[in-house]
């Protein structure tokens, strides 16, 4: 799993228990998955279709640094299935895992659009194809 993104927990990210607000974390995960999928599928109109059960296993407090990891599970026709893990860099604990997040590439009418992708592509692969 690649951990591309780090976040620093600020006062505005906390819940009344003074720990990381779960809704904020889900927003960051959704954004991370959307950006990853838009780049992989080369389609800016890519939406979140499905997210499996989530389990908050630990948390983070103000000043902690967390990192968000994404891994591809499967390339479908119009979909890309990802899994996600968020870790606390300070405590080294897993905060959350999401086993299945399905993103779907859309056409101009908002209908699923086959993306034709079958494997993870890196910038250098794309440059070599030019
Ligand atoms: C110009 C540059 C701009 C750049 C800009 C960048 C800005 C970057 C900002 C990012 C910011 C964050 C962005 C967050 C992203 C949102 O928050 S998106 C908002 C929330 N999501 C939505 O509103 C989606 C609403 N749902 C829909 O519109 C329709 O359900 C969909 C997505 C069109 C799919 O329609 P559908 O009839 O279910 O389609 P269907 O053909 O049955 O299924 C399509 C695929 O989904 C799969 N699927 C369907 N249902 C399920 C299910 N329940 N479970 C699993 N898989 C399923 C199917 O298996 C199928 O897979 P493939 O066989 O194609 O691989």
From TrEMBL:
GO terms for cellular component: cytosol. InterPro entries: Cytosol_ACT, HOTDOG_ACOT, HotDog_dom_sf, Thioestr_dom. The keyword Hydrolase applies. Residues 1-109 form the HotDog ACOT-type domain. One of its GO terms (molecular function) is long-chain fatty acyl-CoA hydrolase activity. One of its GO terms (biological process) is fatty acid catabolic process. Pfam families: 4HBT. Keywords: Hydrolase. Signal peptide: none annotated. Gene3D superfamilies: Hotdog Thioesterase. Belongs to the acyl coenzyme A hydrolase family. This is Acyl-CoA hydrolase. It comes from Zunongwangia mangrovi.
């Amino acid at each position: 799993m690649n951990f591309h993104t780090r976040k620093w927990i600020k006062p505005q990210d906390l819940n009344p228990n003074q720990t990381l607000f779960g809704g904020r974390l889900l927003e960051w995960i959704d954004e991370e998955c959307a950006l990853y999928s838009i780049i992989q599928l080369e389609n800016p109109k890519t939406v979140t279709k499905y997210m499996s059960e989530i389990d908050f296993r630990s948390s983070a407090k103000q000043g902690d640094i967390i990192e968000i990891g994404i891994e591809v599970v499967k390339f479908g026709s119009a979909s890309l299935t990802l899994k996600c893990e968020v870790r606390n860099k300070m405590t080294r604990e897993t905060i959350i895992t999401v086993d299945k997040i399905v993103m779907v590439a859309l056409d101009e009418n908002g209908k699923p659009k086959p993306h034709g992708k079958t494997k993870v592509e890196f910038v250098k692969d794309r440059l070599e194809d030019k």
